[in-house]
Every structure is written in C-alpha cells, then in structure tokens.
Design brief:
Blueprint (H helix, E strand, L loop, with lengths): L12 E6 L7 H14 L4 E6 L1 H8 L3 H18 L6 E5 L4 H11 L4 H5 L2 H9 L9 H14 L5 E3 L5 H19 L21 E3 L29 H9 L17 H9 L3 H13 L5 H24 L5 H29 L13
Parallel strand pairs: 1-2, 2-3, 4-5
Helix pairs in contact: 2-3, 2-7, 3-12, 4-7, 4-13, 7-8, 9-12, 10-12
Length: about 350
C-alpha cells in the first residue's frame, strides 16, 4: 500500500463557518466574518456551511435549511467574502467530515462532550430540555471534524465558540498521541513536526468577540429577535437601535460607558476621536442623551451596511450563480479532506483502498 503524504500548504490554512439558521447579522460580521475578509488574501481559507448541524434541531424542516444555506452565501458575498480568494462549501457534500466525526467520537468521553459550556448554553437557550436528539451533542464532535479535516491552524470565531475549539484541540492531541506516536508531553506547536497528522489549532477571536443584541442584554441572535441584518435599511436600523436599553433612565450618577450602547459606539463609529469624545461627554453627564448617540450609531451602521446591501442585491434570484460558487468550493474542499481522511485512516489502520470523489 503506497504511503500517502500530507501536502504542504503555501499559506496558513483557516477553517470556519456557520450553521444555516437564517440570514447572518451584525454579530456574525463583527465576531467572525470581518476577520475572514481580512484573512482571505493572505491565508488559504475554507468557509463551511454546516447544513447537517442545522438538522440537530430542525430535521423536520429540510427545505428551510436548504434555503438558508443559499441565503448565507449571499450574505457572505455581501459582507466581502470573495469566492476567487477562498472556498465556500457545503458540509454534507464533504463525506470525509462525516467519517472523521465517527472516528473522533471514539476519542472523546461522552461526559466530556456534555461539559462543553457552549453546548449546555444552547440546550438552555433553545429550550430543548431533555428532548434533544442524539445528534445534538454529536454536532460538537462534528465541529472538531469540520476543522481537523482541513488541518487548519486557526479558526476565526466569536468568543462563544471558543469551547468548541478547545474540544478540537483535545481531539487533535489525542489522535496524534494514540495513532501517530506523538508524546503527551509535546508542545502543541510541535505536533506535526513530530509526526502528528493534525495541527493543534487556535481560536482567532477578533476585538469584538460577542456583540450584544438590540435588547441590550443577550447575544445578538435571530431567534431572540434582537438582530440587525445586512438587508435592514436605515429606517429599520434606527427603530432597532432606538429600542436599545442602556439603564441610564434609572441612574442618579452620570452615564456608564460600559453599557450596550457604547459597545455599539466602539464597534461601528469608525472615527476614534469621535468615540472618545462621546465617551467623555456621556460619562460626565455633559448634556448628551441616549437618543442623540443612538441616531449617530444607526447612521454609522447604515453606512457600513449600504454597500453590503448593494452587493447582496446582485445575487438575489441568482441561485444558479450561488450553486456555481458552491460546486467550485466543494471540489477544492474535497481534495483537501480526502487527503486528510486517507492519512487519518492509514494512521489508525483503517485504510485499505484508494478512492476518488467527483461531482456530476
């Protein structure tokens, strides 16, 4: 049996993605997508549409998931992701991911998966109680396969996803130790040089790891009705920002600039001097109200979204073009993942034959 050798990427490889639960919003943009746009010219970037993960809570609504999968591609393109510089692909078109998920599930104790704080939070926020499917906790293992199938070195994510990346790091270490002979004392950065198949990836969290929603309390989320979308116009943005609770109405002291409103000021007003001025005046109670700042924030968000709305409109009703982009991305993704799977199966004694995948 000829031994497969890992390819050497000329650029650092990045993997990240989204579960198709509807349109992307500003929280996605500042938490991860903006970082992807920054990296796509200098890194080998793969952006995943995790449609199988969407089945963990919506298995009875496959047509919705299919629609949302295509809508996210439109949002990616609107936000500045360039399919000429990166690969956008669909999870269920990459069979190596499912095979690696099954293999990695053998390396993780069930109670370790269930201790994942992001998983526990999702069960609570989504009100799943004890009714969730077996596939729901399995998706946490699947996320490790999403990343390791590409042997990615970094994963741009919001801070809420960091526990998933830590689980991925554990799987990479465990696989390399059990099947590749890497010492459990090895430094993470040394694993591949010591014969490991999988790099131990790190989470790449941007300066705004978590954007609070327009309710002023919870993380921005479509399901909570507190999100601002790429397609929102200025009138809609003003209405949503206008309802942002700051707590100032109940204060007897000057304003607290650690509130949700100033999270938005710092995130979306590009002039740093203006941000500092607003912080100073608000903290000093210098005759500036929430309403004035909310108008300024809404206009700044609209200025950010206006070119995105224009770009997105070019792809409305163009499912043919979206599918062309996805076919090309899936072809490139499969080439990488099939190589990874072959290496992993050989290391684990599971590889007997070569295979080749192609789309018809």
């Amino acid at each position: 049996m000829p031994k497969t050798t890992a390819s050497t990427a000329t650029r650092p490889r990045v993997l990240t993605g989204d579960t198709p639960t509807g349109q992307l919003h500003l929280g996605h943009y500042v938490g991860s997508v903006r970082r992807r746009v920054e990296l796509q010219a200098s890194h080998e970037c793969f952006f995943l549409l995790a449609n199988m993960h969407a089945f963990t809570t919506r298995a009875d609504r496959p047509q919705e998931i299919r629609r949302d999968t295509l809508e996210i591609v439109r949002d990616y393109l609107a936000m500045g992701i360039d399919p000429e510089q990166c690969s956008i692909f669909i999870q269920t078109e990459i069979p190596a991911i499912a095979e690696l998920t099954y293999l990695f599930a053998m390396l993780l104790p069930f109670n370790r998966v269930m201790r994942n704080p992001t998983l526990k939070d999702e069960i609570q926020v989504k009100g799943l109680g004890e009714t969730y499917s077996f596939g729901f906790p399995l998706y946490a293992v699947g996320q490790t396969a999403d990343i390791l199938a590409f042997r990615a070195t970094s994963v741009p994510v919001g801070e809420d996803q960091v526990p998933h990346i830590e689980l991925t790091r554990e799987v990479a270490r465990r696989f390399n130790q059990v099947y590749c002979g890497v010492s459990d004392q090895a430094e993470d950065a040394e694993h591949v040089a010591l014969g490991g198949i999988f790099p131990v990836p790190h989470a790449d969290v941007g300066p705004i790891g978590r954007l609070v929603g327009t309710d002023g309390k919870n993380k921005m989320s479509k399901s909570l009705g507190n999100a601002i979308f790429v397609t929102d116009d200025l009138k809609t943005i003003r209405k949503k920002i206008g309802g942002l609770f700051t707590g100032r109405q109940t204060m007897t002291e000057p304003g607290d600039i650690s509130n949700a409103l100033f999270d938005y000021v710092r995130a979306f007003i590009p002039d740093r001097a203006r941000v500092e001025e607003l912080e100073r005046r608000y903290a000093a109670g210098d005759n500036i109200g929430d309403g004035h700042i909310k108008v300024e924030v809404a206009e700044a968000i609209d200025a950010l979204l206006a070119p995105m709305r224009e770009r997105r409109a070019r792809y409305e009703g163009r499912d043919d073009r979206i599918l062309e982009i996805l076919r090309a991305g899936c072809t490139r993704a499969n080439a990488v993942c099939e190589e990874t799977l072959s290496l992993a199966k050989e290391a684990a004694g599971l590889r007997f034959f070569d295979r080749e995948l192609r789309y018809r």
